[in-house]
Amino acid sequence: MTERETVLLREFKGKLDKLINLHLRMKEEKQLLIEEKLQLLEQVRLLSLKNEELVRKQEDLKFAKSLLGAGEDVHGAKLKINRIVREIDNCIALLNK
Question: Less CB within 10 Å around the terminal CB: N or C of the chain?
Fold first, then answer.
């Protein structure tokens, strides 16, 4: 093997080693990004559940405010709720027949 071939072979091996090291680093970075993606997806899922819960609570509050009405007292709201519960009980009784 000539001196020039030896030098070229050494340069090739050096570049190949750099390429292998770069590949390994990219592989590690890819794994870290995959793990980060999974964590973010879980965080999105949890925040979505929390959002759904807050939306339900908001709807419940709107419903409660609508039952109270404008300027009505708590006693009137209780009467409305009792009337609604009786209507529901009647419907259940009809369904059970």
Answer: C
12-68 pLDDT, tens digit per residue, is 999 999 999 999 999 999 999 999 999 999 999 999 999 999 999 998 888 777 766
Report the Cα–Cα distance between both ends of the chain, in Å, rounded: 100
**What pLDDT was estimated at residue 68?**
67
Q: How far is CA 74 from CA 31, 59, 83, 90, in A?
A: 59, 19, 14, 24
Annotate 50-89 with DSSP letters as a single string: HHHHHHHHHHHHHHHHHHHTTT--HHHHHHHHHHHHHHHH
Do residues 76 and 69 touch, judged by C-beta distance below 8 A? yes
User: Which of 32 and 73 is assigned the larger pLDDT?
Assistant: 32
Structure tokens, 97: 């027949």
Q: How far apart are CA 64 and CA 71, in angstroms?
A: 13
- CA 36 to mean position of chain CA atoms: 14
The Cα 22–Cα 28 span in angstroms is: 10
